[in-house]
Automatic annotation (TrEMBL):
Ranges of residues in domain NXPE C-terminal: 20-70
Enzyme type, top EC level: transferase
GO BP term, example: carbohydrate metabolic process
Name this protein carries in UniProt: N-acetylneuraminate (7)9-O-acetyltransferase
Pfam family, one: Cas1_AcylT
Membrane-topology annotation of the record: Multi-pass membrane protein
Similarity remark: Belongs to the PC-esterase family. CASD1 subfamily.
Gene Ontology cellular component annotations, sorted alphabetically: Golgi membrane
Top-rank lineage group of the source organism: Eukaryota
Source species of the chain: Pteruthius melanotis
């Protein structure tokens, strides 16, 4: 934690050649519209020499990129954006002298309008004009000493920044600038820092020393055109830092953690904190009572025989209440860790930076690990439980590496990851259709169990982390698709395998249902208005709105709109072939005859590679996303056939990947806050200065927490969703009351915010 503003202004490093990473926090890249919204009705002044003029131009280009550097070189340059009432002025004062002092003093007197932001800096002209003399340095100290109180006074109501002098590249300096040495610059900077007294932490009424420019210049000054002025990319970085220092506390961007204060606890968060605290206290009290009772019943030594007598009960029975409190006790401690990682300013956060090696090397590493843990499957059916767990596992690990490496900036990787997300939804369609088709179980218990397991963690995180339900978009997506699958098969007439076996016409009835579903999907995907009307009705709007509208939900749903249907259709065809014994699922046997299997395998490999070539040649994300819903099934089906047609491949699985597959949902959700940071925009830093060690430690904690949450969810599902219908009905009424209370407190919270 600490003062991230101070870190932003004074320290950092380059990721690659152009991406600047401040120490401990994340920098937001401001767009023109965002810069205008932040600086609306503001007056910004840059005072200094040609280096400050460079910073001035880079700053106004953040507001209007069309600006050209055509102003008077040795004179004042005004800039105004009338649409947002923004004024930015450059005032030519190349030396710290009486003229500069008089200008600054004019803002401190009377009712003169003061600039909101003042950026000051100068020294190289003093060195040049006086040929680097010691007398000039002494006069510089006197002049800064006279200006410092005025700047301090201005800093009470304005943001004042003193820009330290950047180093020069002495070999490239012209003869007229040879006296400007880095030794002299360091002496001037040291004098300025000492006089402005920036050694202690800055408060609101203190001049902020902009020293980070020195670090940036040390890395890039050799690319300078004249050895004195910074290259354009470096001064653009300085301007972006300046924008982050001032605007982050106003705009509060998710991926701009620098200079952002810790958000205050909401009413719902306070209630959650009290609930978890009481759960921990309650569990400790019950545990102590049980432990005392257990000690009383503990075996004692028979003095006559010398043998130990064992009590009738060797371990204490755990009551439902104790199990419930134990789960909430663990969950409370875990949620505290979540909050500290991503809401409190306790741990550092850093921006992502993509390199090919940061993505592909870990991929190769986990692939080797997965192959090493190969075992025989218990059953050899197509997409058996072990195989689907393995599939979910390796996909989830690849997605995690994709997120932490920032690989979304590389389009071919992005397109392949989109297929992995689609494959998870394909499994949703396949798995739930197979269950309802074979079991014919449309009871409330089944529905409640699935909904609880899918949504429990997300609901808790919405409360603790103060985020809307739609923020964790994947869970709403699989939840809605589960309900669509359920509704499709449960509505009259209910067609299941047992009924269809008696009369083949029922198969056509089911196909008719699937065609109706496909028609509805097609209509909604091309009718944004109808889709938004459906999900804008209360209470659906409370679940699916993000930033006041449901566009984000429509975009997410549309991106993989057909793949669940493809999963359902594949399950129907596969189960029909299996029932008619048209496929062979014996251990080591190919799925079809050798000839058919070889043809299918060849076609699948060609299709798989063809899709990869197409995805790798994508040039435009929008155009590729438009085609993705229709073509992603090609690679998914190709993979399924490659994995299942050869008997020897179908008979083995990776227990390493399968283990991760069992907690894939928890891994996907937990990464938002305790592996990544700033709601997935950055990377959590538990151990600064050691990137690889940090990733190892944070990953270990992250995986352990995800596994523990999976266990907690399973335990609570047995308690909250019982099989007895009357008890289940009571629990559902309690859950309805809980959400009503949550809605009430949420409304109070929103009202207090407004």
């Amino acid at each position: 934690g600490g003062d991230t503003c101070e870190y932003l202004l004074s320290s950092g490093r380059f990721l690659g050649e152009k991406v600047w990473q401040p120490h401990s926090c994340m920098m937001h890249k401001y767009k023109n519209s965002e810069a205008k919204n932040c600086l609306i009705d503001k007056h910004v002044v840059f005072i200094g020499d040609s280096r400050i003029r460079q910073l001035f131009y880079s700053f106004i280009k953040l507001i209007n990129p069309q600006v050209k550097e055509e102003g008077i070189k040795h004179g004042n340059i005004p800039f105004e954006d009338k649409s947002a009432s923004i004024k930015v002025d450059f005032l030519w004062y190349p030396e710290v002298n009486g003229s500069m002092r008089q200008r600054i003093k004019s803002w401190t007197e009377g009712s003169v309008a003061k600039p909101h932001i003042i950026v000051v800096g100068a020294a190289t002209w003093s060195i040049k004009i006086h040929n680097g003399s010691n007398e000039a340095l002494a006069q510089y100290k006197i002049n800064i000493t006279s200006i410092a109180p005025l700047l301090e006074k201005l800093a009470i109501s304005s943001d004042v920044y003193w820009v330290l002098q950047d180093p020069v590249y002495e070999d490239m300096l012209s003869e007229s600038r040879k006296m400007i040495t880095n030794e002299k610059i360091d002496a001037y900077n040291e004098a300025a820092v000492r006089i402005l007294n920036s050694s202690s932490r800055n408060s609101k009424a203190r001049v902020k020393v902009f020293s980070v420019s020195k670090l940036i210049a040390q890395e890039t000054i050799m690319k300078s055109a004249d050895g004195l002025h910074l290259p354009e990319s470096s001064r653009d970085t300085n301007a972006m830092i300046l924008m982050n220092v001032y605007c982050n506390k106003i705009m509060k961007p998710i991926d701009g953690s620098c200079c952002q204060p810790q958000p205050p606890l909401t009413l719902i968060q306070k209630i959650a904190f009290c609930f978890f605290t009481l759960s921990i206290i309650g569990y400790l009290i019950i545990s102590l009572i049980h432990r005392n009772n257990y000690r009383k019943n503990k075996s004692c030594t028979d003095l006559e025989s010398g043998e130990e007598k064992k009590p009738a009960i060797s371990t204490p029975n755990i009551s439902t209440l104790e199990m419930l409190l134990q789960c909430f006790c663990k969950l409370g401690l875990i949620m505290t860790y979540f909050y500290l990682c991503d809401r409190a300013n306790l741990f550092m956060k850093e921006n992502k930076f993509y390199t090919h090696s940061s993505f592909f090397i870990p991929i190769v590493y986990i692939l080797v690990l997965g192959v090493f843990y190969t075992e025989n499957t218990k059953e050899t059916k197509v997409l058996n439980r072990e195989q689907t767990d393995e599939w979910k596992g390796w996909m989830q690990l690849v997605i995690l590496i994709y997120h932490i490496s920032g690989a979304s900036t590389f389009l071919p990787v992005y397109m392949h990851i989109r297929v992995l997300v689609a494959a998870y939804l394909f499994q949703t369609g396949y798995g739930h259709f197979s269950y309802f088709w074979i079991k014919g179980d449309f009871g409330v218990y089944r529905v409640c169990q699935v909904l609880f397991r899918l949504n429990f963690l997300v609901v808790v995180l919405c409360i603790v982390m103060d985020r809307p339900y739609q923020f964790y978009y994947f869970v709403p997506l699989v939840t809605v698709w589960f309900m669509i699958i359920y509704a499709t098969l449960a509505v009259w007439p209910q067609i299941v395998q047992k009924k269809a076996n008696g009369n083949c016409l029922w198969h056509f009835g089911l196909l008719l249902k699937l065609i109706c579903l496909l028609t509805c999907i097609y209509f909604l995907s091309y009718s944004q208005g109808a889709f938004e009307k459906i999900f804008s009705f209360w209470p659906l709007s409370k679940c699916f709105e993000l930033n006041g509208n449901v566009y984000e939900w429509w975009f997410r749903w549309k991106l993989d709109r057909y793949v669940v249907f493809h999963g359902m259709l594949f399950a129907f065809i596969y189960l029909a072939l299996q029932k008619r014994q048209m496929i062979s699922e014996g251990k080591g046997d190919p799925l079809f005859s050798n000839r058919v299997s070889n043809v299918l395998l060849f076609v699948s490999i060609v299709s798989f590679l063809t899709y990869s070539i197409w995805a790798s040649s994508c040039k435009n994300k929008t155009e590729c996303n438009e085609l993705h819903p229709s073509v992603s099934v090609v690679q998914i089906l190709a993979f399924v056939l490659i994995r299942n047609v050869p008997g020897y491949v179908r008979s083995v699985y990776s227990s390493f990947f399968a283990w991760f597959g069992k907690i894939s949902l928890e891994l996907f959700i937990c990464q938002y806050h305790i592996w990544l940071a700033a709601d997935t925009k950055g990377i959590l830093v538990l151990i600064p200065g050691y990137p690889m060690f940090n990733v190892l430690v944070s990953t270990f904690i992250f995986v352990c927490v995800a596994h523990e949450i999976s266990q907690i969810t399973n335990d609570l599902a047995q308690i909250v969703v019982p099989k007895d219908n009357s008890t289940l009905l009571k629990r559902l009424l309690c859950i309805a009351g809980f959400f009503s209370g949550l809605h009430f407190f949420s409304a109070m919270q929103d009202q207090s915010r407004h």
